[in-house]
Specification:
Length: about 260
């Protein structure tokens, strides 16, 4: 999901030159939470030119530069260097999209379906599907074993050249991955959190729903003495800031102060 810049409201202690906390909506919180789904190799690719602390980038480069002569024939370096992360619908892209463009597809054997080009077939006509322009009709469980003798629902592969262990046919029929359904009374907004409230994000990225009481309690907890020194600042967060936030989150406990106040 492409996105424009996201808005973030900072509460700043101008005397101490620190960000106390930020107020953000669902979109920004979804972006933060999505960091947890990123594979380590993806984080390295995003930050390798940003002066990463530590030596894990050297491990990445070692794999990248290692000749395929030393790699097992059944292994692929891209599974380590360019891993796929989980997809969550409607999460704004606050980080550059450097995921592998190859989709992860799944397949079953062709004996799981019965080919037909007419409507006169003894199987249930209400369960038709079209794959690559060819019409198929799924056999009911009671008839499937009599037709092909393959319990093909047991086996799924991500390699469309694989052979079904049950019926010895090629497993090249695409299947669709279905997410678990939510309650029929709930509307799924996508992402991770609900958009019914504004969220308070501390300088160390502790996230919680915001309220007037929680804001006052937090000011007391942060030992703010001069309310007059507090000021609000509305900022726009784009991909450049997203990368900086990712980097700071791995190195600091004052993320917003470091990124937006330059400390």
């Amino acid at each position: 999901m492409a996105t424009a810049n996201l808005s973030l409201k900072l509460l700043i202690d101008s005397k101490a030159q620190r960000v106390l906390f930020a107020e953000a909506g669902k979109d920004f919180v979804d972006c933060l939470f999505n960091i947890m789904s990123l594979p380590v190799a993806t984080v390295i690719r995003l930050l390798r030119n940003q002066g990463m602390v530590g030596c894990i980038a050297n491990l990445y480069e070692s794999i990248e530069e290692l000749s395929n002569t030393y790699i097992q024939p059944t292994a692929d370096k891209d599974t380590l260097l360019k891993p796929l992360s989980n997809y969550v619908a409607n999460v704004p892209l606050l980080l550059p999209n450097i995921q592998s463009p190859i989709a992860h597809n799944f397949y079953r054997c062709q004996d799981a379906v019965v080919r037909t080009r007419t409507s006169f077939h003894p199987l249930r006509k209400s369960k038709r599907n079209r794959i690559n322009g060819t019409r198929f009709e799924y056999a009911p469980p009671s008839q499937r074993s009599r037709i092909n003798g393959c319990n093909s629902t047991t086996y799924i592969t991500d390699d469309q050249t694989s052979i079904c262990p049950s019926c010895n046919t090629v497993m090249n029929i695409p299947v669709t991955f279905v997410n678990g359904q939510t309650s029929s009374t709930e509307i799924d907004e996508g992402g991770y959190v609900k958009g019914v409230v504004t969220y308070m994000i501390m300088d160390d990225l502790v996230v919680s729903p915001i309220s007037t009481i929680s804001s006052i309690a937090m000011l007391n907890k942060l030992n703010v003495k001069e309310v007059g020194a507090l000021k609000e600042k509305l900022i726009e967060v784009g991909m450049n800031e997203g990368v900086e936030l990712l980097k700071a989150s791995l190195q600091s406990k004052t993320v917003f102060t470091d990124v937006f106040l330059g400390k």
